[in-house]
């Protein structure tokens, strides 16, 4: 910091919490489930539930963190950023480094291939769009890509682009960015505005000019990708339907009004909409380079499996006995049939 400001001043709350790293570590839970081949049929790749021990009253969780998590659950955010200081770059998930022992086996590589490579890095399924979102901010910033002077405290970690994956630069578990990605629909990044955490009042106008166009450009990216409504055949919205994009192993959910947004890079995608009690629907959706999300609506037909499960539940989930024509029913069988009908 400048003048008398220490880098640690204001970093923690009065209770001693670093709020940015106070969220549940859902990435490690996901990777552990992947190792056991539980994803996605038994463990979801999106909207991962918060562990029960984390929600306990005596858990070491800041009241601010609980409030932010409740805010995220209430609002279906699509794009987010948190502003920090002490560096000048944009950091994107994953912030958590995957343990080497849990990294999926890959084809052998020569020793030269490992130069400038971190074996603990785990890219998100949305790695390409995260990089684009980060570049959209850094490239519009007046000085963020001027990395020829190096980083604020060490060498430049961004390869002269002003962006870096969090786990490569500053690995940490339980970050707000990883939580947003794995528990909500939101793609969130960390924007480090500058080396000086405590700029002087006379410098604030220039700091605003440095970031103004970047903030506008970043917010515009919320309109890149696909959006739409998921309804039944009567036009009623279907909440909590799952939107699956082919080739990206990370899904999103519809809101209470059946609406969804999915930020994507330009290209052609095969998209599915799925919901409990309905037959899935699929269509091809194209995303163009111009700003403006492509409308991609889905109408789902009710599935017979829902009614079958209801009938099975009425029968105690036991197989329903088939009535053989020509054989008289016993009074007990007749009574069961009457009750079932």
Brief digest:
One of its GO terms (cellular component) is extracellular space. The protein has 341 residues and is of the alpha/beta class.
Report on this structure.
Helices cover 26% and strands 19% of the residues. The protein is an alpha/beta fold and 341 residues long. The protein has two domains: 2-99 and 124-222, Aminopeptidase (3-Layer(aba) Sandwich), CATH 3.40.630.10; 224-340, Carboxypeptidase-like, regulatory domain (Immunoglobulin-like), CATH 2.60.40.1120. The strands form three sheets. The chain has a four-stranded mixed sheet, sandwiched between helices. Strands 5, 8, 11 and 12 form a four-stranded mixed sheet that branches. The radius of gyration is 25 Å and the shape is elongated.
What descriptors fit this protein?
elongated, four-stranded mixed β-sheet, alpha/beta, 341 residues, single chain, 2 domains, Aminopeptidase, 9 helices, Immunoglobulin-like
Strand order of the largest sheet: 1-4-2-3
Order of helices and strands: HHHEEHEHHEHEEEEEEEEHH
Q: Work out the radius of gyration.
A: 25 Å
Average of the residue pLDDT scores: 86
Which percent bin holds the helix content? 25-40%
Question: Structural class, judged by helices and strands?
Answer: alpha/beta
CATH topology description of the largest domain: Aminopeptidase
Low-confidence stretches: 102-119
CATH architectural group of the largest domain: 3-Layer(aba) Sandwich
Number of strands: 12
Number of helices: 9
**Biggest β-sheet strands, sense, barrel:** 4 strands, mixed
Domain Peptidase M14: 1-222
Region (Disordered): 100-121
Protein name: AEBP1 protein
Keywords: Glycoprotein
